[in-house]
Structure formats: structure tokens, C-alpha cells
Design goal:
The chain is mostly helical. The strands form two sheets. A three-stranded antiparallel β-sheet has the order 2-1-5. Strands 3-4 form a two-stranded antiparallel sheet. A hairpin with a 2-residue loop joins β3 and β4. It starts with a helix and ends with a helix.
Length: 235
């Protein structure tokens, strides 16, 4: 089972990126003025220890579920969640900074519609303000703080859609992906097998290509941005 999970970790990673933007507490955390609690500096933005811990804990919970509640020490070591957390934070902040540079914005109406359509804030199919405020209070969030987080989420979605517009998938790419997966499981390709899964596979291949586009774009941004990681805090 463990071997299977390791071979298919990229599928879990793809799924992770599909759901990550909907987390309510993504990236909440302040920075101590002394600079001692700064985990990473990305351009002018300083990431505090709370934001790093929130990101790490969310990654840990995700992989714990993926591994069916079992995360042996050697698997944790191979996953290197500390590095993954830092990489995720850097990617997020670089994309937000670039979105600001090109003037990408979210209107008040877009933000309001997004929050009012959030399933967790609805009662009997309609937005319930009392429920909304109660949930925020339980999570020690103010409406202003939560709306700021969600605005960043929507800006990131817009930024990614811009980058994804140029990505497409061919039938040959889907077939190649399917054949490679069969080989890794010791199986052979048979005519008719692909048709049963073509749409599902197309979605997986498309998301994989989209992730590569994002990663490549972020690497370009890294070259132009001064990034400093406080290794003492995360070691």
C-alpha cells in the first residue's frame, strides 16, 4: 500500500492544488516587528511564523488523510513538508505580487457574491449572515480579516486562469499518460481501455500541465525577486 501511495503522490498533489484555494484559514499570521518571527522574506513581504505553521499543519493534515491516517517517519522525511510549506508560501506571494503589478483586482461585488455563495455560510440554500458571523467568531476571525483572505484567494484564481488560458491537452497526450500509468503498475494497454477513462484522464493531464505552467512562471518570478529564508526557524 505504501509503495502504491508513493508512486501516485502527484495525483494527491494535483487534488491538493484543486482544493487548497477554498481553505478559510489560508495564510493567516502576523509578523513580529523585531524580525525574529520572520520565516521568509519575499520581496518586501515578510511571512510570519503563524502563516508558516498554518500552511505546514494544513499540508500535514492533507497527507495524513491521503495516507489513511498513517504517516511513518520515513514517509514524513521523504515528503519534506517544511520545504513544501515554504515553497507554497513563496508561490502564493509571488503570484499575488505579480497580480498587483499587472493591476489585477477583485471588485466588491465579486467578493460579496463569492462569500454569499460559500456553502458553509448558507442555510436552507441561502446566505445566512448570523451563521457567517458565528463561524468567523469560532475561528477567531473578523469579517474584515476573512474578506481580506478571500480577496487574495480570488485574485490568485484570476492570476492562475490567465496562465492556464494557453494550456490545452491533445488526445495523444492523454493516451501517453494512460500507457505510462499502466506500465508503472505492470499492466499493458488494450484497445478500448482508454475510452472508458478518457475524460477523467484528460482532466488529470490538463491539471498536471497547468501545474507545470504555474511552476515555470513562479521560477521566472523567483529570479527577479529577492527571497530570504530563515533556516533557523524551520530547522
Amino acid at each position: 500500500m505504501l509503495g502504491f501511495m508513493r508512486r501516485h503522490m502527484k495525483f494527491f498533489f494535483i487534488f491538493f492544488w484543486l482544493v487548497i484555494i477554498s481553505f478559510v484559514l489560508w495564510g493567516v499570521g502576523g509578523v513580529n516587528d523585531s524580525g525574529r518571527d520572520v520565516v521568509v522574506t519575499i520581496g518586501k513581504y515578510k511571512v510570519g511564523i503563524d502563516e508558516y505553521r498554518d500552511t505546514y499543519d494544513r499540508l500535514f493534515d492533507f497527507y495524513k488523510r491521503a495516507y489513511q491516517e498513517r504517516l511513518p517517519e520515513e514517509v514524513l522525511r521523504d515528503l519534506d513538508l517544511k520545504k513544501k510549506a515554504i515553497d507554497e508560501i513563496i508561490q502564493k506571494r509571488l503570484l499575488l505580487q505579480e497580480a498587483e503589478r499587472i493591476g489585477l483586482k477583485v471588485t466588491d461585488e465579486e467578493l460579496r457574491d463569492h462569500i454569499m455563495n460559500y456553502p458553509g455560510f448558507q442555510k436552507d440554500g441561502k446566505f445566512d449572515r448570523e451563521l457567517y458571523l458565528r463561524i468567523l467568531k469560532l475561528n477567531r476571525l473578523t469579517p474584515e480579516g476573512f474578506e481580506s483572505i478571500e480577496k487574495e484567494t480570488l485574485i490568485l484564481e484570476k492570476m492562475k486562469r490567465i496562465l492556464w488560458d494557453s494550456v490545452d491537452v491533445t488526445d495523444e497526450e492523454v493516451k501517453e499518460f494512460f500507457v505510462e500509468r499502466l506500465k508503472s503498475d505492470g499492466k499493458t494497454f488494450k484497445d478500448g481501455d482508454l475510452g472508458k477513462l478518457s475524460e477523467t484522464l484528460r482532466g488529470i493531464v490538463l491539471q498536471e500541465k497547468r501545474n507545470k505552467v504555474i511552476s515555470s512562471y513562479v521560477e521566472t518570478l523567483k529570479i527577479k525577486t529577492k527571497i530570504k529564508i530563515n533556516e533557523k526557524i524551520i530547522s
